[in-house]
């Protein structure tokens, strides 16, 4: 048995629901609006299901859902085509930009947690389902809120977005950190956790601030404690079943988690 624990040299953090936009509400609202403009009412669950993927892929996945495709067929006489999804994407970008201007606040505790991670000697990478154009809106807002990672990688800069591992590989490359077993991937979505696992990285799922719970900070505060605990227990189980090795409520808890990870002896 080795006396030392796992070595973590870098973290790769998601954005919406993980470091900004408590509840990951900005993208969800826009997906619902884009389909509504075409006379198709989608549910919150349908809008949130593919969260974490590149936004064009996200739209395509919603459109391919059997219920949504059936509604599309009733209204337009054909199932959603690639051209339909592309047209929605063209509308999506400016609307998402507008929403991000007021929906990109840094989640409480993130600046302090990231500063502590840096004091611990960790590099801070980030990946997202947003395009670079959208991140040009988000980044200065996050910086004003006290959060600026060392690296930002977006889907249009790699071969494919989540759940493929390429975003994580590129972030690790830019950080100059390997092997991937020393790079902790932190995300609040199914696609993000899958991408971390596909990269061969230890993964951390975020429950309370993220897409799975989908509530704003104020809504969480108003929720009865027993109900919150019940919901978070279900979400944690789902992430564990997916393969996430660690689960936290917020990235604010990440420094303490990493201390625990690095102090656990490994069998060699």
Describe the protein's architecture and organization.
With 268 residues, the protein is α/β, with parallel strands linked by helices. The chain folds into two domains: 174 residues, 3-Layer(aba) Sandwich (Rossmann fold); 75 residues, Putative phosphatase, domain 2 (DNA polymerase, domain 1), CATH 1.10.150.240. It has twelve helices and six strands. Strands 3-2-1-4-5-6 form a six-stranded parallel beta sheet. α1 packs across α5. The protein is globular.
Order of helices and strands: EHHHHHHEHEHEHEHHEH
Secondary-structure arrangement, i.e. CATH architecture of the largest domain: 3-Layer(aba) Sandwich
Task: From the 3D structure, determine the CATH topology of the largest domain.
Answer: Rossmann fold
CATH superfamily of the largest domain: HAD superfamily/HAD-like
The major pleated sheet works out as: 6 strands, parallel
| Spatial strand arrangement across the major sheet | 3-2-1-4-5-6
Q: Runs with pLDDT <50, length 5+?
A: none
Question: Can you give the helix content as a percent range?
Answer: 40-55%
Taking Cα atoms only, what radius of gyration do you get, to the nearest Å?
Answer: 19 Å
Helix count equals 12
Number of domains: 2
Q: Tell me the total number of β-strands.
A: 6
C-alpha termini separation: 6 Å
% residues in beta strands: 5-15%
Mean pLDDT: 95
**Structural category:** alpha/beta
Give the SSE layout.
Blueprint: E1 10-13, H1 25-36, H2 44-48, H3 55-64, H4 66-76, H5 82-100, H6 110-119, E2 123-127, H7 132-144, E3 151-153, H8 166-175, E4 183-187, H9 190-198, E5 203-206, H10 217-222, H11 225-242, E6 246-248, H12 254-263
Parallel strand pairs: 1-2, 1-4, 2-3, 4-5, 5-6
